[in-house]
Fold this sequence. Notes:
The chain contains one helix and eleven strands, in the order E-E-E-E-E-E-E-E-E-E-E-H. The chain is mainly beta. It has one domain (7-130). The strands form two sheets. Strands 1, 7, 8, 9, 10 and 11 form a six-stranded antiparallel beta sheet that branches. A hairpin with a 2-residue loop joins strand 10 and strand 11. The protein starts with 6 loop residues before the first strand and ends with a helix. The structure holds zinc ion. Residues 10, 12-13, 15, 66, 68-69, 71 line the site of zinc ion (ZN).
Amino acid sequence: xxxxxxxxxxxxxxxxxxxxxxxxxxxxxxxxxxxxxxxxxxxxxxxxxxxxxxxxxxxxxxxxxxxxxxxxxxxxxxxxxxxxxxxxxxxxxxxxxxxxxxxxxxxxxxxxxxxxxxxxxxxxxxxxxxxxx
Length: 133
Ligand SMILES: [Zn+2]
């Protein structure tokens, strides 16, 4: 087992999104509350942390932005998911990592070339989500 965590970067500015054991995103709720939300960098873990004054409700679709360049991280073809880049600590390979922007939804897709690994109890068929016409 490697002691190193996976590394995560913004696809737009290449800035590092993981700091101090969390993945850091700028977010905006449907009620236009803005803040930072911290997610677990461990694929398949869905705990999240935010300031107590940022009201985040289960089932809400959040805006997920890069905290460095403010790019909207919505995945191409499916705006209910975000996409970032992941450098695997174990194999040093680059992946596209997709995760749901809906609070409490547990689904993550780790993609390299044509290979998709799916995590979380809410995960659906990746091709249906991202490649259906
Ligand atoms: Zn960025």
